[in-house]
């Protein structure tokens, strides 16, 4: 079984990776849009448009959208990321046609009223207000890592931008959003050739536009990327919170290497970070980890809350994990299994498989024509690859440290001393 591509007469690419053994399907549309591509004065427009276009479908269906979804047991969702927007619809295979008829309404012009746009604006502003209350170390780190670029912008944007974005502005943005080369559809799960042909017929009645340039998922490069100061960023706050980030040149490594490196550090109960910070010491209960990744650059991130009295001990353990990875990264077999032994299990969840295939192959442009090729790529990675990556990534000049808490009690010089040990 391999990925297939169908191109409609009007040029819309539809990728598919069917699995007739499932009872469900998942149909998604991916658009290369989001805060990374937005100017300061329009920041948040992709996220706002995602909200409005779903409300527009309800308007086009005379207010029956959610009723129809429930009637056919369908699930419809939208999500905006920094570099793309996803819409998805999923359900039982026998309701593919009904789902497709709803889904293509994403291409329809905005028919909802200014009052409905205003209502959705209120909802998004409430979402922004909730996010603004969270003055976390993680958010401050994001600003420090991507300083001077569009990647410091939030996905939801600013309330003042929303205030000047009405139906007219959204309709103009629609031409940019539905643009040639920047969107595609992906179908997974139980979908037949007949189903795909029906979708083609519907899409060929849809309109989209020539934006002039194809978006390549290349992150803007901050001026101090790979040239960081060891001075930690301090934030005044109640609970003590630590966030660290490492700059990564993602173009130097394969997708398999990047995934396995991240997993070796942070994923699973046996991974060294969890063992050292929680299981063995009890310094923390859990942590948040993230790899903000683009085709050219990435940011490997970790943050956790810790009692002020255990801050130095926790940070010391954290640094020990990073240093040990340079020489003794451990066995890959504990993280490789989910990609190799369990590789075919990805087909069992049409929704997750859809997201992962689309992201890997058409956002990051990795060449995995089928699951077997991906498994082979992960088999080729060695422990020495992991050690080499650690030596290249875990350096003081690549590291950003943010600490939230009582500034007077944060031992800055000791923190800097531990950061310097990465150069040894």
Please tell me the total number of domains: 2
CATH architecture of the largest domain: 2-Layer Sandwich
CATH superfamily of the largest domain: Metalloenzyme, LuxS/M16 peptidase-like
Strand order of the largest sheet: 1-2-6-3-5-4
Class derived from helix and strand content: alpha+beta
Largest sheet: 6 strands, mixed
Quickly name the level 1 CATH class of the largest domain.
Answer: Alpha Beta
CA(first)-CA(last) distance: 48 Å
Number of strands: 11
CATH structural fold name of the largest domain: Cytochrome Bc1 Complex, Chain A, domain 1
The count of helical stretches stands at 16
Give the SSE string. EEEHHEEHHHHHEHEEHHEEHHHHHEH
Report the principal-axis shape: globular
Question: How does this model look, in words?
Answer:
The chain is of the alpha+beta class. It is built from 16 helices and 11 strands. It folds into 2 domains: 4-203, Cytochrome Bc1 Complex, Chain A, domain 1 (2-Layer Sandwich), CATH 3.30.830; 233-332 and 381-423, 2-Layer Sandwich (Cytochrome Bc1 Complex, Chain A, domain 1), CATH 3.30.830.10. Helix 10 runs antiparallel to helix 11 (311-325). It is globular and about 65 Å long. 39% of the residues are buried. Residues 114-141 form a coiled coil. Residues 27-157 form the Peptidase M16 N-terminal domain.
